Amino acid sequence: MPRQVPHITLKDGTRLLRLRRRFARAERWGLYAFADPSVAARQAPVFWHMAALKQVVRVRAAPPTHRENLTPLTLSSFNVDRTAAIGVDNVPLVLMKGPGVHIPVEIHDVAVLTHPFAPVFEIDGFSDLSAQTELLKRLHRFTEQAPSAANRPAFAIDERLHHALIALDESLRGRTNRQIAITIFGEKKVAEEWQGPSQFLKDRTRRLVAKGTELMKGGYRDLLF
Question: How far is 4 from 224, CA to CA, in rounded Å?
């Protein structure tokens, strides 16, 4: 492994890692290369490998004059934290990280890291079209004015993850969904709603168990991006 991760910071603030060879041990952890151990954990840039990502936006970078109705972009057009990596395949992977969401973008042209380009997005088949469309919508929101900390909406993701981990623990102990719901929401709420006309509490408990199981089987990586 390199003693120090050879990365630079571009003028627009994007942190860029460029490697001339692969590091197999780091790739097994989902990384292009291990972080520099001499840098404090919160300051060390982390460059995730393509293989560790579930969904990727793929872009063909055309010249700015490719089509008149396309607005040219630069990496600075995206008002979020950005880390980019170029491996031996010479294809840049840019990880865009906004509040509570991350989007990897594979761009087929190295020059776009420092020059304007007209984006041509690729759709990978029709089997998961809605998920790909949603990913593009989120990416587009990154080009809008970044919200200030005061106006940023509060996210309930921490509480949901907490409940999912409780549901996982209780499920692994062999508890029923009703017992899991009592542990999370309290006996009074379950007594009032479990047998009622609404299936909301039952469905929510099932989703929490499923989410906890997904986290256990590798989904926890999403929390690290």
Answer: 21
Hey, CA dihedral for 87, 20, 30, 42, is it positive or negative? Answer: negative
Q: What is the DSSP letter of 114?
A: T
Phi, psi of 181 (to 5 degrees): -60, -40
Tokens of 120: 């041509």
The answer, as to whether pTM is greater than 0.85, is: no
- Alpha-carbon distance 159 to 140, whole Å? 27
Helix (H, G, I), strand (E, B) or coil at 26: helix
Q: Are 184 and 166 in contact (CB under 8 A)?
A: yes
The CA distance from 100 to 155, in Å, is: 8
Q: Tens digits of per-residue pLDDT, 1-59?
A: 556 677 889 999 999 999 989 999 999 888 999 887 787 877 888 899 988 888 899 99
Whole-number Å distance between alpha carbons of 220 and 225: 10
Mean pLDDT, to the nearest integer, of 201-215?
93
C-alpha closest to that of 117 among 168, 155, 74: 74
Angle at 53 between CA 50 and CA 57, to 5 degrees: 80
Digit-coded pLDDT (tens) for 64-80: 776 666 678 899 999 99
Q: Count the neighbouring beta carbons within 10 Å of the beta carbon of residue 156.
A: 10
Give how far Cα 180 sits from Cα of 10, 32, 187, 196, 215, Å. Answer: 49, 39, 10, 17, 17
Kindly report the backbone phi and psi dihedral angles of residue 9, in degrees, each rounded to the nearest multiple of 5, phi listed first. Answer: -115, 120
d(CA 148, CA 151): 5
